[in-house]
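Appendix C: a fully annotated inverse folding record. The material below is reproduced so that readers can follow the format used throughout the book. The structure is listed first as tokens, followed by the designed sequence.
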């Protein structure tokens, strides 16, 4: 099959979060399965240009209808880790993608509405007729709408659309001017069966448009698929998902083991495998040395996370004091888009500056992240909601035991050491239900107690986690079946 990914992110060249890793990992897996894969992205001025090979202008006369005029664009091509990527660069009055950042401006809806139209216009003008167009999140929600109501009538009747929801907290609510700008008549979409938001009668919902007009809708874990249909985590789209449940399902994300693998990782102090698990402790020693932690008989509890309310930031804050008071060392790597949260953690960092058992790194450092996964004993993920989560999947590959909240993809992949309805050799971590301090302590205290009192059992959890295969092999097979289904 010929598959085109239309996406706002792709690791490592344009990455904000897990969406970028999914696009990269799934595309590589599909390519290894023999499919032709191309990726269309905006040309951001803040991309990692050093990760693009053979970068060159490939199309210089793309005129995109938008806002009662035509915007001139150039299209660039390059390989990103072996993947064919096209980057659309508009020459517009307001520098749509020359902002020094990927998201976060008041006109984000306008920017990505333009990108959706531009991606389809580029495919039309360059005579690309893929079997599948795979779109991602609200930023590309208009692609299936435009394909159905404009581009099919211009000869693009072949492609079918798969649309993946990565996070329903952000849905792309906008006014009717956005719909008009891309060449559609807002009056045709102002009803609950199309783009009108389910709760705000004056707003259009771009993510809802993607759900309604695509041929199949996926999200990034089976548990999250259930949650967004039946709980407040659906953020108002529950009814829409019920209406379209016949074309909706959850596919668990994978991890790229070419990047995250302790047997080959160039960023850790000592490579190891399930057969040489004792070498993991050389990484613990290296982590302590790098972060100036005391070398003593204590477990290291780690957090590698964006610091925001979705990630349970109030519980991360509590976990620092709880872990230190209960015989642990604590390591944190992360930062927040919210200055108030960042300032809060900087204050905690200063207050613990002389503590030999704690280090907070208020930033993101990819190399250090690898060493933290390899050198820690436990990884803490107390999320309020978590569509899939890659952190726990990476941690398990490195023999680091996850302590997580029972939600979304965390619940699909972590099975409690004491209470899981699974045989002992399949249990791999600790879960808690309640989003409060008591809930967190109920799981973290059991993990700490196991580490101190039953080290062989704790080691068994480490090995169990390492045995799980959370590569892209299984989701790659599932997506191939979905593509074949909608082609028929």
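Designed amino acids, in order:
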């Amino acid at each position: 099959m010929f598959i085109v990914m239309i996406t706002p992110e792709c690791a490592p060249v344009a990455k904000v979060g897990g969406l970028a890793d999914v696009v990269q990992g799934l595309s590589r897996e599909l390519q290894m399965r023999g499919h032709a894969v191309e990726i269309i992205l905006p040309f951001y001025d803040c991309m990692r240009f050093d990760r693009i090979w053979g970068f060159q202008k490939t199309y210089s006369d793309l005129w995109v209808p938008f806002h009662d005029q035509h915007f001139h664009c150039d299209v660039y091509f390059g390989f990103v880790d072996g993947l064919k990527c096209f980057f659309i660069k508009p020459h517009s009055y307001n520098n749509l993608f020359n902002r020094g950042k990927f998201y976060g401006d008041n006109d984000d809806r306008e920017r990505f509405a333009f990108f959706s139209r531009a991606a389809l216009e580029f495919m039309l003008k360059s005579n690309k007729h893929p079997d599948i167009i795979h779109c991602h999140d609200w930023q590309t929600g208009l692609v299936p709408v435009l394909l159905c109501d404009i581009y099919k009538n211009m000869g693009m009747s072949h492609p079918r659309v798969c649309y993946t929801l990565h996070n329903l907290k952000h849905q792309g609510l906008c006014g009717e001017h956005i719909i008009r700008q891309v060449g559609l008549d807002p009056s045709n979409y102002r009803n609950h069966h199309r783009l009108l938001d389910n709760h705000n009668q004056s707003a259009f919902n771009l993510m809802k448009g993607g759900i309604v007009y695509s041929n199949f809708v996926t999200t990034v874990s089976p548990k999250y698929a259930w949650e967004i249909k039946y709980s407040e985590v659906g953020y108002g789209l529950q009814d829409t998902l019920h209406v379209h449940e016949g074309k909706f399902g959850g596919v668990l994300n994978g991890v790229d083991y070419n990047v995250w693998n302790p047997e080959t990782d160039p960023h850790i102090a000592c490579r190891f495998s399930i057969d040489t698990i004792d070498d993991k402790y050389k990484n613990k020693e290296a982590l302590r040395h790098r972060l100036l932690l005391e070398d003593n008989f204590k477990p290291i509890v780690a957090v590698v996370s964006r610091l925001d309310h979705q990630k349970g930031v109030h519980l991360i804050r509590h976990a620092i004091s709880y872990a230190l008071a209960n015989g642990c060392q604590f390591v944190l790597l992360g930062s927040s888009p919210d200055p108030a949260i960042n300032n809060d953690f900087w204050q905690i960092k200063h207050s613990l500056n002389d503590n030999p058992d704690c280090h907070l790194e208020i930033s993101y450092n990819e190399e250090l992240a690898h060493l933290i996964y390899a050198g820690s004993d436990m990884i803490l993920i107390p999320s309020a909601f978590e569509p899939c989560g890659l952190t726990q999947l990476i941690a398990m590959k490195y023999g680091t035991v996850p302590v997580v909240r029972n939600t979304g993809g965390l619940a699909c992949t972590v099975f409690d050491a004491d209470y899981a309805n699974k045989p002992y050799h399949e249990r791999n971590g600790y879960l808690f239900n309640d989003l409060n301090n008591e809930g967190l302590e109920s799981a973290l205290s059991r993990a700490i107690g196991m580490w101190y009192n039953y080290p062989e059992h704790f080691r068994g959890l480490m090995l169990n986690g390492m045995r799980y295969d959370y590569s892209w092999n299984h989701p790659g097979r599932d997506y191939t079946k979905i593509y074949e289904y909608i082609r028929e």
